[in-house]
Design a protein that fits this description.
Blueprint: E1 3-15, E2 18-21, E3 33-37, E4 41-44, E5 54-59, H1 68-72, H2 84-87, E6 94-99, H3 103-116, E7 120-124, H4 150-153, E8 158-161, H5 163-175, E9 192-201, H6 204-249, H7 267-270, E10 275-277, H8 291-294, H9 298-303, H10 305-318, H11 323-346, E11 384-387, E12 393-395, H12 396-405, H13 429-441
Parallel strand pairs: 5-6, 6-7, 7-8
Antiparallel strand pairs: 1-2, 1-3, 1-9, 4-8, 5-9, 10-11, 11-12
Helix pairs in contact: 6-13, 10-11
Length: about 450
């Protein structure tokens, strides 16, 4: 973790591992309290603690007398400065302070710090007068020519402070060392006075991300559960739609209740619905006999002509409700006489194979006189009507527009004109819901 501040104060040690704050107990000429807030630069976080500040006695790592850097840094480090031997006997954690002079001298101080097994090392640049925060760790100032490998080779975190701040601490270290035996203040206190340093680390990087991590974990869990539920719901709905499609094709479902009135009739199905000219109901009209009657040959009609006319006359007297059909049948037989007589006079060999056909075809299953769509009366022998499977008739132009643009249901009885099992529309979840509610109501 990055350093946030550095605090150094003089403390009296009365025994190994025991320290007391000396600031309120000593006079102003001896007490020392130094704080750097926001001007501490982190160079290496290797083995930096995760749960709290770094505490220890401040000292200067000692270089070997044969090391050239011993003489190079001699003018920067006082001879009576607090060394490792001055703090090691107190049995407390230690923090080193060293000048960043050159590449080789820096490596020497790093090596000496490793031997002393310190908890942290603080560098300063003695030849700079800038009191602000030193350059960042990736700056060329801290380059030792090993691609920053020195940060991993040393088992302790490394920090940097400004040149004036480092010089102040170095001067204070020369005042609080074992060489102060002749000092007047030494006889005033029972114990050793040393500089105690505390490096505060940034804590917001641990608390805030942990809170956001908890929130993101909850949101992620909700999102995953929602996706799982959505996939399950879609699978269930697909199975229900497939089941409803099979039931519609089998004719087991009330497709009118499912919203069939919104379905339009395709043109190819509309072309299969019969169309004919509206007949004159007040006068005998040409008609087509049933299929089995139309297959009777002209020769058989000639042979049975007399008995059929007799039976027809008797039925006219007894049954009033069938008058139109009897007229139609009588007309068909009468129309057959010239053809039959002509065939008998010419002794034709084709008399057994010529069926009788009317020029116009109509059924009039329901005797309607008015179109229920436009409310206009049908004109006999002029109006073209279309008869739906439910036997209701309408003007062809009226019912065609209605079926192809509005609905597939008969305007009068609301029955579908589509063939059984035909449903030219995709099955939706709303239809599935309606079908489910219909079955539950049953």
């Amino acid at each position: 973790m990055s350093a946030e501040s550095l605090t150094t104060a003089a403390a009296v040690f009365t025994g190994p591992g025991i320290a007391t704050n000396s600031t309120p107990a000593v006079n102003g000429s001896v007490g020392f309290h130094f704080v750097l807030d926001g001007t501490v630069q982190t160079l290496s976080t290797h083995n930096s603690p995760d749960d709290g500040p770094i505490k220890g006695l401040l000292f200067v790592p000692s270089l070997d007398t044969q090391d050239p850097c011993h003489d190079i840094t001699g003018s920067l480090i006082p001879s009576n400065v607090t060394g490792y031997e001055d703090v090691s006997t107190l049995g407390y954690r230690t923090i080193g302070l060293a000048p960043w002079v050159s590449l080789e001298c820096t490596k020497s101080f790093l090596s000496a710090s490793r031997k002393a097994e310190i908890d942290a090392l603080v560098f300063y640049q003695p030849y700079t007068n800038n009191t602000g925060k030193p350059p960042p760790s990736d700056d060329i100032t801290w380059n030792l020519g090993d691609n920053s490998e020195w940060k991993n080779q040393n088992e302790y975190p490394v920090y940097a402070i400004s040149g004036p701040a480092g010089a102040t601490l170095m001067h204070q270290l020369s005042l609080y060392s074992s060489n102060m035996t002749q000092s007047r203040e030494k006889s005033t206190y029972q114990g050793d006075i040393r500089l105690f340093t505390l490096i505060d680390l940034e804590q917001d990087g641990n608390k805030i991300p942990s809170l956001w991590g908890f929130i993101l974990a909850i949101l992620g869990t909700i999102l995953v559960l929602s996706l799982i539920l959505l996939v399950c719901y879609q699978l269930v709905q697909k199975r229900r739609r497939d089941n409803l499609q099979r039931r519609i094709e089998a004719g087991e479902t009330d497709i009118e209740f499912l919203g069939l009135n919104q379905v339009k009739v395709p043109q190819e199905i509309l072309d299969q619905i019969p169309v004919y000219t509206y007949p004159d109901l007040n006068a005998p009209a040409k008609a087509v006999l049933p299929d089995e009657t139309r297959s009777i040959t002209a020769g058989r009609i000639s042979g049975e002509h007399t008995s059929l006319r007799s039976a027809t006359s008797e039925n006219k007297k007894n049954v009033q409700t069938d008058s139109y059909e009897l007229k139609t049948l009588d007309t068909a037989i009468t129309r057959s006489d010239p053809e039959i007589n002509n065939n008998n006079d010419n002794n034709s060999n084709d008399s057994d194979s010529a069926p009788v056909h009317g020029q116009e075809t109509f059924r009039l299953s329901n005797s309607q006189t008015t179109c229920a769509i436009c409310l206009d009366d049908f004109e006999p022998r002029l109006s073209i009507v279309r008869e739906l499977p439910c036997a209701h008739i309408f003007h062809a132009e009226c019912i065609d527009t209605f079926l192809t643009q509005s609905s597939s249901l008969c305007p009068l009885c609301k029955k579908s004109v589509l063939p059984p099992g035909c449903y030219p529309r995709p099955i939706t979840n709303l239809m599935v819901h309606r079908d489910h509610m219909l079955r539950r109501s049953r």
